[in-house]
Amino acid sequence: NAGVTQTPKFRILKIGQSMTLQCTQDMNHNYMYWYRQDPGMGLKLIYYSVGAGITDKGEVPNGYNVSRSTTEDFPLRLELAAPSQTSVYFCASTQVGVGTQYFGPGTRLLVL
Amino acid sequence: AQTVTQSQPEMSVQEAETVTLSCTYDTSENNYYLFWYKQPPSRQMILVIRQEAYKQQNATENRFSVNFQKAAKSFSLKISDSQLGDTAMYFCAFMKQVDNNDMRFGAGTRLTVKP
Questions:
Q1: Which residue in A has a C-alpha nearest to residue B35's C-alpha?
Q2: What is residue B86's three-state secondary structure?
Q3: Residue A96: closest CA among chain B residues belongs to which residue?
């Protein structure tokens, strides 16, 4: 099993550009999450999904959008990149009732 | 909202010695999970240990153990026989058991194991 995979590993964006961060899990987990980690900080929840077709906002959703058309995939969209979105982005998943979240390797994003 | 506090931004320990990382949290919930995650320089988030709040027995995983004090809302991590590979950021995290939608992380403790 690959677990949780994320692409790309690293990306540089110019201010105002858009991009999609990809996340895929092969564990048939219902729940998926997107977090951001700013330098020297812990992770903060951006969006989450409890199943295909269902998404909801986390603690820091502004500037992002998500969709969940399948159980496996949970892409994160940045529409108008801003320097404040420079961060490392982690995708995670879990099965309902299990609690433990399994993380992808992260995507480092630099907005200049 | 739940908050998680790690009061030690940095710690160091000699190889083979024992070190304890502190974590406190604030919640009105009775049922929840607590976690310690390790983040080495590769940035991968790796689960070290987890504790269910309803369990009185402290969780252990090989050289890692916790001291869970529910009344004091304290959840410290003890690393025995420290190894160079333990050098990493360690994050304490809290999640309500009733839903899996809101995991809260502390700011982390940077642990350096010295040879």
A1: A100
A2: helix
A3: B100
Question: What pLDDT does A23 receive?
Answer: 98
- Any CB–CB contact under 8 A between A45 and chain B? yes
The model's pLDDT over A55-111, given as tens digits with 9 standing for 90+, comes to: 999 989 999 999 999 999 999 999 899 999 999 999 999 987 777 899 999 999 999
For residue B53, the model assigns a pLDDT of: 93
Query: Do the bridges between strand A64-66 and strand B74-79 make them parallel or antiparallel, or are there none, so unpaired?
Result: unpaired
User: In B, which residues are within 8 Å of A96 by CB distance?
Assistant: 100
First to last CA, chain B: 41
Range from A4-18, A54-68, A90-104, B42-56 carrying the lowest mean pLDDT: A90-104
In this complex, is the C-beta atom of A92 within 8 Å of any C-beta atom belonging to chain B? yes
CA distance B44 to chain A (A): 5
β-strand pairing of B60-61 with B46-52? unpaired
Mean pLDDT of B94-101: 80
Q: How far apart are CA B29 and CA B104, in angstroms?
A: 14
Give the residue-averaged pLDDT of B89-110. 88
Q: A41-60 as b/e, with b when 16 or more CB fall inside 10 Å? A: ebbbbbbbbbebeebeebeb
Q: Are B74 and B53 in contact (CB under 8 A)?
A: no
